[in-house]
Specification:
- The protein has 213 residues and is an alpha+beta fold.
- It has 4 helices and 11 strands, in the order αβββββααββββαββ.
- Strands 6-7-8-9-5-1-11-10 form an 8-stranded antiparallel β-sheet. A 3-stranded mixed β-sheet has the order 3-2-4, with no helix packed on it.
- α3 crosses α4.
- The C terminus is likely disordered.
């Protein structure tokens, strides 16, 4: 379980100091409870944060919640090298989330004008990206098996009374569900990007960093 700000600062540093030939990276983790507010976020969407900290960040989008039992995937991708625009990367991420959910017999979809992935009318995955020096950072959060209560204290992603969902609402949850979903989604994302997965050995970087090769 990682504090939000050190991870954010680490990926921002890498985007601000690009190194020639550096490999794309995918970071997998879960955060301690935190609300993050996008750079154009409006304060009125934070209704009652209570003891949960609110961090103003430099990604797109409005406010969302991160907490235990949620899978967060940060994508540090050289989009310039790939000649890929933001829209193309968003489309790829959304499609691979939908593919992953389908493997759990969960039918999901996107919504025009509302980035993310939905099951019926409930949001199950949120997206927020930033491009700097040709590198993407930030990424996605997928609700797996968590306490959804803190979402009631915000307008998730700036939508009033938006319902949220998680995989555990539709699929039997156990202690290994988050790990299993992490592997399936990472494999799907790396496949979509044209890579094979390469994971750090146990005991490596606490960020949950894995390189794409």
């Amino acid at each position: 379980m990682q504090d939000y700000e050190p991870i954010w600062q680490a990926m921002r540093y890498l985007a601000e100091h690009p190194r020639e030939g550096r490999a794309d990276e995918v970071w997998l983790l879960s955060h301690k409870p935190v609300y993050t507010q996008g750079q154009a976020g409006k304060a009125e969407h934070i209704l009652n944060p209570g003891d949960i900290p609110v961090v103003q960040v430099d990604r797109g989008g409005q406010v969302t919640y991160h907490g235990p039992g949620q899978l967060v995937v940060y994508l540090l991708i050289d989009v310039r090298r790939r000649k890929m625009g933001v829209r193309g990367l968003v489309d790829l991420i959304e499609q691979e989330i939908i593919t992953t959910l389908a493997s759990y017999n969960i039918e999901a979809k996107t919504r025009p004008g509302a980035p993310g992935v939905y099951v019926k009318d409930a949001k199950i995955a949120a997206l927020g990206l930033r491009i700097k020096n040709g590198w993407s950072y930030h990424g996605l959060s997928l609700n797996v098996n968590m306490d959804l209560g803190p979402f009631k204290n915000i307008n998730p992603c700036g939508f009033e009374k938006l319902e949220v969902a998680q995989i555990a609402d539709f699929y039997p949850a156990d202690d290994h569900l988050l790990q299993a979903v992490s592997k399936r989604l990472t494999d799907a994302l790396l496949n979509g990007l044209g890579y094979q997965a390469h994971y750090d050995k146990p005991g490596g970087d606490k960020s949950g960093q894995g390189a794409a090769e």
